[in-house]
Amino acid sequence: MLTKFETKSNRVKGLSFHTKRPWILASLHSGVIQIWDYRMGTLIDRFEEHDGPVRGVHFHISQPLFVSGGTTTSSLDFKYEENSEKAVQCLNDLVMAIGTLALCYNNVGVFRGVVKMRRGLTAKVIDRTNTMADVYGAFYDFSCLLKSKVNSNDPNAKHTNKRLDEILKTCKDSGVLHKRKPYVLEDKPIYKSMQMIIFFIILAVIISFYFGNKA
């Protein structure tokens, strides 16, 4: 079945089919979201809340809801201190995204099971990302982790490293990294404690073996 829908927009950025009704959800570059009945070929509803291109849409699997994401034309307003709280809220999702990317990148585990940020790290990110310094710190830490996982034999390694270097430079140029709260690169006391315990166990075994043979 081939059905054509006509609308005024440069591009269609995303589509989503309803699980039960003959509806298709379309996100447009013009900033409009449309719901079409693909059997009747009619426009059911349209939404114009976005002030920039709508990058993606998706129907909820069971509830009468849909989610959309887009690019705002007023994002430069986020650089002002009075808008920092809204900026951080907007960037929190991106922090979670780069954190997940850092875990999944060059990780064969993604083909064997589910790879995602653990609850502890997720809670840490949510709890510690409160200021722009925290956002820069999170991007810096996760970018360092990504950079350490880049395989030099990968044909895209050069391009990947270039992008990561740009992110790291932006974070450093912010001048607030000294205020950041570490996420994934901090030394965890529990690991140090475990190492000390193992060391003393091994030392005790060696001493016992030595004096046992001497006796």
- Numbering strands along the chain, what is their spatial order in the largest sheet? 1-2-3-4
Task: List the secondary-structure elements in sequence, H or E.
Answer: EEEEEEHHHHH
Instruction: Please give the alpha-carbon distance between the first and last residues.
Output: 90 Å
- Runs in which pLDDT lies below 50 for 5 or more consecutive residues are 185-191
Form type: elongated
Helix percentage range: 40-55%
Q: Report on the biggest sheet.
A: 4 strands, antiparallel
Q: Roughly what is the average pLDDT, rounded to an integer?
A: 79
Which secondary-structure class do the elements indicate? Answer: alpha+beta
Number of helices: 5
Please state the CA-atom Rg, rounded to the nearest Å: 25 Å
Number of strands: 6
**Beta-sheet strand percentage?**
15-25%
Task: Outline the structure in words.
42% of the residues lie in helices and 16% in strands. Strands 1-2-3-4 form a four-stranded antiparallel sheet, with no helix packed on it. A hairpin with a 4-residue loop joins strand 3 and strand 4. By secondary structure, the chain is an alpha+beta fold. The protein is built from five helices and six strands.
